[in-house]
Amino acid sequence: MKVGSLTSGYRVVLFGESATALSAAACFQGCAITVVCAPDEPRLASFSRFVEGRILLQERSISAALRSLRVLRERANELLMIFPCSDAWIDTLSQDLPGVLQCGRMLPSTAEDCALTLDKLFFAKKVDEVGLPQPKLYRDSVSADWVPTAYPFVLKPYSTYKYANVSGVKANVVNNEEEWRALDKQMLCDWEFLAQEFVQGASISVCFCTTGDGRLAASYATEKIHFGIMKTGSRVATVVRHDAIELASEFLRLTGFVGFGELELIDSERGLVLLELNARPWSQVVMSRALKIPLLKLAISVMLGKKLSECSKCGTEPLEWLSWDDDLLFCRRLRRSGKPVRASTTSRRVYAHSFLRDPVPTLVYAFSFSRLRPGRIFRRFILR
Q1: Quick one: which of 76, 102, 222, 266 could link to 236 by a disulfide (CB 3.0–4.6 Å)?
Q2: Fold of 202-383
């Protein structure tokens, strides 16, 4: 299935300059692609050779975003395929979903589907409502005078992306009473938090796209094998986890969510539990291309109203992906233990670790694209 033929007469609009937008651009190669970005976003995705144009907004607001969409729609006389590439952009565009959907097609496309990814309390209550396993919810609104009844627990903000932008972490783990007493309670006044059971276990993700009525059209499972706890950035590898895919299928069927994304789970002692939903392109989305499971292409089909058949698919080719905040630039095939493995080397923050495993691509990255590079002036030329 060629994306270009699917999107004839349409334009893909990526909201955001992040690594996820760059990855999405690589998946949409062959399409007409425009990046819309805010002034505070470092330029990244629009450097891709697959991107035709860039619109820099004067401010990150729904009014500015709608103006850009209307201009694009009128200029090219094309229906727009809209992809917010971060939770921040989902939040912005969800402020006037009817206005956005007048300009084109978007996933997620309902207020409830947006809330499932943006509001962690809404997600927790929805999972509880449909009776699926998740960490225990100790308190849905944590105040400074709350007395915890169990340790350790996780203080998770309702909006993890906003909190992470300020603090650098997605949540806080409180291990004991002493840590609770020492906690700066001002954060509980500045942000809304829920208190959730701290569950230990492997971090499993199910990457998926649904059919138009909320059933799995395709999926694969990955496991984080090296990552900073509660922080952005991970090394992931494909795993065969039919139980995880089945749980994801149940979640989608019972909640009625339609779209694509990444459902995060923890493989705990009592089994798999649901953690959160990322309903947008994710940093290792290029991985789906390598696995020949075209999730974003399928998402386009859903947006066009095409009928997709239900099918659960789990990547079996061993694939390892290194995914950080910086651009995903390399994908090369190696042989480890006699099996073909792909790897991506992306960030100076993991140079030392990556060099020990894959010295050649790490050195190429360091001298070609990183801030350490001597050939800095060639970046735009090379990426285009």
Answers
A1: 222
A2: D-amino Acid Aminotransferase; Chain A, domain 1 (3.30.470)
